[in-house]
Amino acid sequence: MMGSCVAPVLIGLILLQIHEISECHKIEVTPDSGTVIFFSKKPAEGLDCSVCKDEGPSQTCNSNLELTEARPTIVTFNCSQPGNIFTVQINQKIECSTSGCSIIAVHPHSTRFLEFKRTFNWDLKVQSGKMFQLDFPAPGMRQIKLSESCPDKHTYTIITYQRAGPLSVGTFCRNGTISRIQVLYRGRVSLEVPKDTELNPSDFKVSQGSDTTALVVVDVKLPRGLSSFDFFTPNYDTGFYSEDKIKWNFAVEPMHNFTVLFPQYTPPECQKNKVLVDYTLGDKTSFTKAPTEIQPANKQGDFSLTLTNCEAKRAANVPGLSLNVNVEVTRGGTPVLCTADLRNEEGLSLQIENKNPESFCEMSLNSVVQEKIVVPAGTKADLSFLDCPVQDLQLTATKTIDCPSVSSRDVGTIPLSLAIPTLDPSLHVPLQQFTWLLRVLDQGTVDLTSPAGNLLQSLPVKDCNEKVSLLISETDGSNIGYFCSLAEGTIQKIQIKGNVSITVTPKTIKDLSQEKGPFLKVATSPEITENVIYTVSPLILGTMNLATPNWPKGMNPSSSVTWIVNVPQEHKAELQFIDVSKLTCESGHTEVTIGPLDSQGQTQSWREDQSFINTVVQQQQSFYLNMSNCEPKSDHFAVLSKITLQKETKKFLGIILAVVGVLLLLLIIALIVVCVIRKRKNKPTANRSSIYMPRGKPFLPGNATFPKSRADNESHVYASIDDPTMYGHLLDKNQPAEVDNGSWSNGHQVDAYRPFTGPADSIPPATDSSAEYPLDGRGGDREAFQSFLNPPNTFNLPRPRSPLVSQGSIGFEDRRMVHNELHTFKSVGDINPIRLSTDESKLKLEMESDSDSGPEPEYEEAM
């Protein structure tokens, strides 16, 4: 029985030993040069757990382990969780033995021994009578009581070593007002971090400070605004007894007041001298007070406070000197008060912030100092501004509007006008920005139009010249573009799917509250498939630019935009792509499509892998331009295009104009013919009857005319020829030729022949020289001479003129009387043959050719 019981016990002991061996924790440690790593066991913890150095026969184990050599060392713990039993100290010595000691930046390792509680110690030493100086990075350190803890679990402790023993200067946390601490001669800086906490140290700098008679010098930089900070003397919990000085230097911001208070003061039992507090205000004023007196209050400027201890009694249960110094900082001056009442303006909220961080502006909301004031919608707030220049403040307002749903919207609903509401007149801060948040309750579309004229998109090629600018953005915050309302704008409507934000900012004015008129009109419509749709009408004169949303940064992935372009009648539109960005698509394609609105014409399209830069597309009717983006892999998709209108010249218009021209030409010709005919009827015709010339020297009539004016009557027109009247004096010599004055022939008055009775000397002799009397009457000096027998100017071809031959010759023949029986005048005797000269032969041929067309009516009547 006993043998059977011993066997399980032995097996259990063996398994326990194996388990203990398996629970050993092994790490490799390499100390830095000049660094000592010390593993120490916590009191009353893990009595059976030890730390071992190295392995094999040379292994040594103990409750503590110190590593000083800068070589890899195997450290083994014979327990599973050594972090609960051991702590780690990493010690480093820094000594400045000369005045030229350089500044050393302290950077503790951040990844070692995470499972242990760690304490980093820096032992500092400088020349005797000198101070070592610790400079902390911004925002500095904050002193706390020993009973307090730091929020980030990084606790700093500074100790000074004096002849009487070590003295704790204080315990500190990060994010405070202490920028520098100087300690006399020797000391230690410790950083304590608990286990399982990532190390995030402040990389303070160490250097040798100046000569001083104080034990500790603390430099403090007080922040702006209302604040309060506490500082404590060394060994605050137990007090210190040495007759030393503790000095604080305070830097106070301008236009701030400080007040010093001693909330907690424990006086020592002085054996010699007294405890005094010395103040120095700036560089001039100095005074001394006892700790029990009223300390300076509502003072301005930098100051220093020096606490001097007496020679205190050292004994058990006798406290030393302990003093809690509290410094309060307030703003000086008189604040400006105003009210913001937003209870009567639905959805309106205000935000006020200081744009100049270097100013001393102090803003308060309901008596609470704020870095940024936010007045929620539907509330009333009391605002205070102290030393806040108006030009440093920025007031922005936001108004949320719930657009009516498309299903419940009435057909005759008037579009909503976006105008800036009137703010409280006591709020003297200029309005720098106003934003409308338009929320669509259902899946709808926001329609934006201009209250006057059309909208114009502000682009580098054509910027807005108005006093304000409108930034329109989509729901996700991506910008569509900047717009303004101008009479020469081309955008009639912008349709955006989903919620929209519209922000108006000033361009040439300082306060938006001065603009009272509406900026946009808002309506809702059913949901569209594209993200944005523009309805545009190009200018008759000039060009129109089309830019994709968020130009030039590029459209959102997988988004689309459409322009509906209305082309006026008798015009055609030229579309040109002037700037197209190149991109690579991860999925899908970017596509540009152009097509007519009536869906009857041919569409054109391009993708990102096709070239369409500087392509000019002509459209003779209204059309749409659609652009869709892909999921980009690199770069972005952005297009800038241009539309120009041109007057269209149609083919049938040219035909109509040609026909009209021909008709006009025919009409002009007809009018000319009618006018000529009427003129011919009214113009007197030339007398074509033969006139008897007496024998003698022939002469040309020259300018001889009938006594009567032919312009006044038609007496020169011969309707018929009366032979007895014309030649009666030849038939009967005793009977004189008379003219039947007042007689009419065929209803027309006719002229009768009368022999020439004028002086013969003034008549020039007739010659056969054709040069002296040219047939056309334009020779020599006689340009005014016209032939007596010239025919009137009509469309009829002119009659041949009678040859200028001697009329006294028996061979003279008047061809115009060739068919008359009395056409020759001869003396009694044989018939003489008629000889024709060369000129007369030519004239005869002309007359024969002329006679082929038949005798003229006037001659027929004469015969």
UniProtKB/TrEMBL annotation:
Residues 848-863 have a biased composition (Acidic residues). The keyword GTP-binding does not apply. The chain crosses the membrane at residues 652-677. Residues 757-776, 839-863 are annotated as: Disordered. Residues 1-24 form the signal peptide. Residues 222-316, 530-644 form the CDCP1 third and sixth CUB domain. Residues 26-96 form the CDCP1 first CUB domain. It comes from the Eukaryota. Residues 104-208, 432-509 form the CDCP1 second and fifth CUB domain. Keywords: Membrane, Signal, Transmembrane, Transmembrane helix. InterPro entries: CDCP1, CDCP1_CUB_3rd_6th, CUB_CDCP1_1st, CUB_CDCP1_2nd_5th. It holds the Pfam family CUB_CDCP1_2. This is CUB domain-containing protein 1. It comes from Culter alburnus (Topmouth culter).
